[in-house]
Amino acid sequence: MTTSRKTVETLSNDRRMSDETFITLLVASAAVGVFVLASAVVPNFFQPLNMLNLVTNNWAVISLGIGVTFLLVSGNFDLSVGGNVALAGVLAVWLAQSADGAHALSTGFGLPTTLAILLALCGALAIGGLNAFFVVRLRVPSIIVTLGTMMLARGIARVITQGSQRNTNLPDDFGVLGNLTLFDTAVKLPVVLMAALLVVAIVVEKKTVFGRLTYLIGANPVAARLSGVDKARHVTYLYLFSAAIAGAVGILLASEFKSGFSNRGMLMEFDALVISLLGGVAIAGGFGSVVGMVFGALILAVVTSAATGLVLSPDWQFILKAVAVFCAVTTQTWALARRHR
């Protein structure tokens, strides 16, 4: 009887959902709760169009959150994504502008749009490679390195734009990518690309060796090293992946507005970090998911949209974001501790 009881208990424990699934469901429930509360407090908040806008208007931050989430899971930060957004967009515009402009900010290199976009993406990847070099080879803490490269990228963008923006003398086809809609709907190409990127990220995270190794590196780097995992190469790929996403976001935003703006992407790195933390990603690494990050993005979007609907100043929106992060981290820690009691 004792053996039978132990067997039943073991099977029962095996059937319990993982901590990651538990936290994801908790975050999803919180997102629904926050939305219901906002609908009750803010006039006309509960509308189908508003629910759609919560996702479509935040496609850029959600896309950046994918790369940031993977790096956080591996135990690393990437605060350079906002600066990289500005740099890639400014580079794409500068390279595509005609060479016969009337003044400095309207004069570029006159390259074909496709070539300008590819070179701008290479510029973003250079920032990712710089991150990887300092973090992997020189072993500088990632939070310091990426904070520095964020300022470097935005500084280069400001030099190119002279602290302003470049928005004239561009070829007509430069604005196609950012404004292309699908099947005569209001859904733009960047939103579709975000959705496709989410699907790929979830598959990589859950179904591939690369995804499992990312968790192992973050949860137990010693075990990963003893298992023969090439941590340096793995983290380098993650930084290049995050930089590529940031570059693509910057180029798409530049195409949408047909301008290279040095302040574009300002504070996006912190929003990407916030939605990852709201989604249950552990800041120490080894825990979290892309799905949770998406629900974290919805929470942040609802809080920001509700604050706008209540005509609160941007200063109060910063406070609400801070409160949301503190509440989320505290609740997740308490819930996991209670679950394992």
Structure report:
The protein contains 15 helices and 2 strands. It is mainly α and 341 residues long. The protein has one domain: ABC transporter involved in vitamin B12 uptake, BtuC. A two-stranded antiparallel ribbon has the order 1-2. Helix 2 (19-41) runs antiparallel to helix 15 (314-339) and helix 13 (268-278) packs across helix 14. The two termini are 26 Å apart. Residues 1-15 have low confidence and may be disordered.
Number of structural domains? 1
Please state the second-level CATH architecture: Orthogonal Bundle
Beta strand count: 2
Q: Mean of residue pLDDT?
A: 89
User: What gyration radius follows from the Cα positions, in whole Å?
Assistant: 22 Å
Structural class: mainly alpha
- Report the portion of residues in β strands: under 5%
CATH class category label: Mainly Alpha
Cα distance, first to last residue? Answer: 26 Å
Question: Unreliable segments (pLDDT under 50, ≥5 consecutive)?
Answer: 1-15
Q: Strands of the largest sheet, in order across it? A: 1-2
Overall outline = globular
Query: What's the helical proportion of residues?
Result: over 70%
Major beta sheet, specifics? 2 strands, antiparallel
In DSSP terms, counting alpha (H) and pi (I) runs of 4 or more, how many helices? 15
Q: H/E order of the elements?
A: HHHHHHHEHHHHHEHHH
Q: In the CATH scheme, what's the topology name?
A: ABC transporter involved in vitamin B12 uptake, BtuC
